[in-house]
Amino acid sequence: MMVASSRKGFLFPAALAAATLGLLVTGAPCRAVEGKDILRQTSAAFTRIAKEAVPAVVSIKVEKTVNVGNAPELQGPFEPFDDEFFNFFFGRPRQRIQPRRYMQMGQGSGFLISDDGYILTNHHVAGGADKIAVRLTDGREFNGKVVGTDEKTEVALIKIEGKDLPHLKLGDSDSLEIGEWVLAIGNPFGLSESVTAGIVSAKGRSGIGIADYESFIQTDAAINPGNSGGPMLNLDGEVVGINTAIFSRSGGYMGIGFAVPINMARQVKDQLAAGGKVKRGYLGIYIQEMTRELAESFGMKEAEGILVAGFTPSSPAEKAGIETGDVILELNGKTVRDLGSFRNTVAAMGPGAKTALKIAREGKHLNIEVITSDLDDENGAAEGGEPGVDIGLQVQELTPEIAGRLGPGRSERGVVVSDVEQGSAAWNAGIRPGMVITSVNRKPVSSVRDFHSALADARKVKSVLLRVRLEQGSRFVVIPIE
Fold first, then answer.
1. Do 368 and 428 sit in the same domain of this protein?
2. Residue 11 has pLDDT above 80, yes or no
3. pTM recorded for the entire structure
4. Same-domain status, 94 and 104
5. Domain of 202: which CATH number?
6. How many other β-carbons are positioned within 10 Å of the β-carbon of residue 354?
């Protein structure tokens, strides 16, 4: 029995496996023919997509002037698919050298999205490039010009001068399903026109640390250094993502890759094409996940929505009447489920947008309208971003209600620790949820705003000194800053 997918009758891997298993177990001739037909259909689908898409996938070579002494430290298991740019950081041991400028060569991938030469790729491929050379699969070479790049989403738009160029159609990444077949095309290790196939492993991946605004598509399609900026395609040959990063401990393929959803990239691309930069909406609130423990503290039956831990002075949220301790349940009529999607949605609205929020406050539901402002006008502070040094903890206002639940001895002014990341500097120093912080580096704190302001000043030193109030008394805790 054959099971067709939603995309033009092609089959899912489950159908392939079932047919193949039936062939191995029964050995029946009819099953053998059926199994081969399924494999041929799948192979033909991949071949068709590759033939149509490969001519529109380009190789990008760049020259970039860098200051070696000020080069950033790139650490951790998440690596951009690069690309010669990042061999310096990942391929060799770092050495202490004096600052100097030199010309660095790099390469990546991209794909044409119009017949007059617009190309989508990654910010880390084209951003800051002094010279860009674009090569098509038919051997033609062009000089490329950066139209604009957006580091916050890892999207870049470049332009070459040409007519009647092969190009790809942009699809709908929201319609992707987990388990659906996708193809990745690019130039891994400089090997042009490489095509790999896999499935969508997950959607909406955020909190990875690759970009400020994340909602990545995760795939197991084999992707390697050099694939940066290449397209991820569905079985209709439509672009559903831009290959951006891999999870790797060796620098090569380990079965986990990430792509920017094309719906997000399309919004960025349109703004870059119109003005060379991206304008984002901004509410001016600090937000955190609503845990079960926090929900109980706020008298909620379930851990739903996201918690407002504070806001910036004179922000749109403050002007609209949002208060610390509010729980945002809905955004423009849609349920709020996590921080990442909330931040992405607000940012995509742009400045001047009317935002309808449904919030829970002291057991009541309220509807509040907030007009977004321009993120760039607010010093670039991303929604929910914790300013200052990251020591691995989150805090919230110490209201009389919370102080009463914490018990005697912790009712003085300060902020209460709501969450601590296990393994973080704060966790290793013994900080735990429920503790009350009354000062940071000997500066008294009585609000979330005071706390973050003090942490911002801590950038200048190598440690953070916290005064923590416990039920038995108070003590100082020194947290080193890496």
1. no
2. no
3. 0.66
4. yes
5. 2.40.10.120
6. 10
